[in-house]
């Protein structure tokens, strides 16, 4: 039986799938899709859970039977540094510690029981993140109201946005989870986090993201990073193409010790960051080279296309010129044939030449433009058109011409006009029994 086909993804889901693969470095698209579906396509929760798995902490969808232990300091993947609270000193210190121990134990036990019971009555509102940016901005405002404006530059965006920027810029990302109710939080913020040397160090060396665990966004990050105590700091960087937690600092840490621990973590992982920078630079160079090759290919292609276009235009121009010459030759041939047919028709329509002894006959000698002479007899009563038709029928006569007398010089009106639709006869034209007429070529005109 064939397995049922998975439903097609929407455009938004496809974009989340590609973004999740880019952030986590997973090669299997099926695994990326299963992880996002488990988190109801919440990419931030899915990325955090994936980072959680990379630290060695089980996924929230495969919880262990008991609370997971803290990361082992022997694990070379994640450097863990925990500052324990100082032990009581002297008789007075131990006496105070022993007296307060039952009260402290009772308080925290009752508080845990109350929180546990409250989960069944009312779900934890921090479980639903509706405005992650608002959670971060609200924490920054409350922090400044309580501790002042002198503090490291907080990243004003979501945890996922901070991860994206750290990955894109190849920078370290330091995450601080603020426990509002913890006894060491105030001292850490005032004596460590807001000192000048720590502010300068963090602002110049890394991105700094912080949020309170009482906020939904901070609580979600807390569920992903699984801190054991407060104050809690986690160093994250791009390692082996994945955003990885490379250091965890927990407890009340002093400014000098904080700077030393962060410097140690950065020095220990500097080679990975340099490797990522070199690899990214190689990718960028390869991309630039490929782009230059593509541009050169396109330029060559455009040049070839331009050559082909010009060649086609030249060929088309030659073809048109040849066609024009051919059409002109055909037209000239048609005109010549038409002219010959017209000459034959005119020759056939000419009246017969009268005899020489006819008293009404007129002998005319025509001098043609090629200096040849033609002689023919006509009748006085015939129209000048007959003379014109006779000359037109001769092969030696040009296509257009006019007949001119010599003395006095005048042009004989052989063709009909609007003023004289019927040309005059030879007698009316004043011709004598013997005349010499000149044929003037008008073809060029």
UniProtKB/TrEMBL annotation:
Region Disordered, residue ranges: 302-361
SMART domains assigned to the protein according to its UniProt record, in alphabetical order: UAS (SM00594)
Bias (Basic and acidic residues) ranges: 303-348
Domain of life according to the entry: Eukaryota
GO CC annotation, single: endoplasmic reticulum
The keyword Cytoplasm belongs to this UniProt entry's keyword annotation: yes
GO BP terms: ERAD pathway
Name under which the protein is recorded: FAS-associated factor 2
Keyword Transit peptide applies: no
UniProt-annotated location(s): Cytoplasm; Endoplasmic reticulum; Lipid droplet
């Amino acid at each position: 039986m064939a397995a049922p086909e998975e439903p097609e993804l929407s455009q938004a889901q496809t974009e989340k799938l590609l973004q999740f693969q880019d952030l986590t470095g997973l090669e299997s698209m099926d695994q990326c899709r299963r992880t996002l579906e488990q988190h109801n396509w919440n990419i931030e929760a899915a990325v955090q859970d994936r980072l959680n798995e990379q630290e060695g902490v089980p996924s929230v969808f495969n919880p262990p039977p008991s609370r997971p232990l803290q990361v082992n300091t022997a694990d070379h993947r994640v450097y863990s540094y925990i500052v324990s609270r100082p032990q009581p000193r002297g008789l007075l210190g131990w006496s105070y510690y022993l007296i307060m121990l039952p009260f402290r134990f009772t308080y925290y036990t009752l508080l845990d029981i109350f929180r546990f019971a409250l989960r069944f009555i009312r779900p934890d509102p921090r479980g639903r993140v509706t405005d992650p940016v608002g959670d971060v901005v609200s924490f920054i405002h409350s922090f400044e109201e309580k501790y002042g404006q002198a503090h490291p530059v907080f990243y004003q965006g979501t945890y996922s946005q901070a991860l994206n920027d750290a990955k894109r810029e190849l920078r370290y990302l330091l995450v601080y989870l603020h426990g509002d109710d913890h006894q060491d939080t105030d001292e850490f913020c005032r004596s460590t986090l807001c000192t000048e040397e720590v502010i300068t160090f963090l602002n110049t060396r890394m991105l700094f993201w912080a949020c309170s665990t009482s906020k939904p966004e901070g609580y979600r990050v807390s569920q992903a990073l699984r801190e054991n105590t407060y104050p809690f700091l986690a160093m994250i960087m791009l390692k082996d193409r994945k955003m990885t937690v490379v250091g965890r600092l927990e407890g009340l840490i002093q400014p000098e010790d904080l700077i030393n621990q962060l410097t140690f973590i950065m020095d220990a992982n500097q080679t990975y960051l340099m490797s990522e920078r070199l690899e990214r630079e190689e990718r960028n160079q390869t991309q630039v080279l490929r782009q230059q090759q593509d541009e050169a290919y396109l330029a060559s292609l455009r040049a070839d296309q331009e050559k082909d276009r010009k060649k086609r235009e030249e060929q088309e121009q030659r073809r048109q010129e040849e066609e024009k010459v051919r059409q002109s030759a055909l037209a000239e041939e048609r005109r010549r044939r038409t002219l010959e047919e017209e000459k034959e028709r005119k020759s056939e329509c000419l009246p017969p030449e009268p005899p020489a002894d006819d008293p009404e006959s007129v002998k005319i000698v025509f001098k043609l433009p090629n200096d040849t002479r033609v002689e023919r007899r006509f009748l006085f009563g015939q129209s000048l058109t007959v003379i014109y038709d006779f000359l037109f029928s001769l092969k030696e006569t040009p296509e257009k011409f006019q007949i001119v007398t010599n003395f006095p010089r005048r042009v004989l009106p052989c063709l009909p006009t609007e003023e004289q639709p019927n040309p005059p006869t030879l007698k009316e034209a004043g011709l004598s029994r013997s005349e010499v007429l000149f044929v003037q070529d008008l073809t060029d005109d």
